[in-house]
Write a structure and sequence with these properties.
- There is one protein chain.
- The protein is an alpha+beta fold and 181 residues long.
- Helix content is 35%, strand content 13%.
- It contains 7 helices and 4 strands; from the N terminus they run ααααββββααα.
- The protein is globular and about 40 Å long.
- The chain starts with a helix and ends with a helix.
Length: 181
């Protein structure tokens, strides 16, 4: 298992610089296990570590990380996933199994973690063009890299805010096959 203590230390420094108010308390292992039971899959290990050791959401880029469950954010990650999964598998807008929304960018866009991958690939769900085959993009190959982008202000969201073109994200090749699962 990878030691993410340096990343969590850097994350803590960045969050303290971004917001003076205290973060929501982290979740107990029992609450995370309950959330995983509701989801039907385990969280990616780093994501579970963040919720267990750092905070139950409420930090991060722009609209901030969703609380996993029972948190202060308007939206809860588990509830959002379960609601998104109500579209029948194989339908045009079926939400892929094991892909947990972790941040609402607004306008229907979400940052999501593919909890079924070893790296915890972070995906961008962008439905606004109206084509479900073109709605999923690989934001970062791993959750660790995505969190590092937040800590270092190097994410696409920073470049977009500065007016840069951010069309270099590759499409997620598994979108249709994962939605069928």
């Amino acid at each position: 298992m990878t030691d993410h203590s340096l990343l969590l230390d850097r994350l803590a420094r960045r969050v303290r610089a971004d917001q003076p108010e205290p973060l929501p308390p982290p979740l107990s292992p029992a609450r995370i296990a309950e959330a995983e039971s509701r989801l039907g899959f385990p969280l990616h290990s780093l994501l579970a570590l963040v919720y267990r050791e750092f905070a139950n959401g409420g930090f991060g880029p722009d609209y901030q990380l969703l609380s996993l469950v029972d948190g202060p954010t308007d939206e809860q990650a588990v509830d959002s996933y379960l609601e998104a999964r109500t579209a029948p598998p194989g339908s045009d807008w079926a939400w892929p199994e094991g892909v947990l929304p972790i941040l609402d960018w607004g306008c229907g866009m979400y940052a999501c973690v593919d909890c079924r991958t070893e790296e915890g690939t972070v995906l961008l769900f962008e439905p606004n063009p109206g084509d479900p085959d073109l709605a999923w993009w690989v934001d970062s190959p791993s959750l660790a890299e995505w969190l590092d982008h937040y800590v270092e202000d190097t994410g696409w969201w920073v470049r977009a805010e500065e007016g840069d073109d951010v069309d270099e994200m590759p499409p997620w090749p598994h979108a249709r096959s994962r939605a069928a699962g």
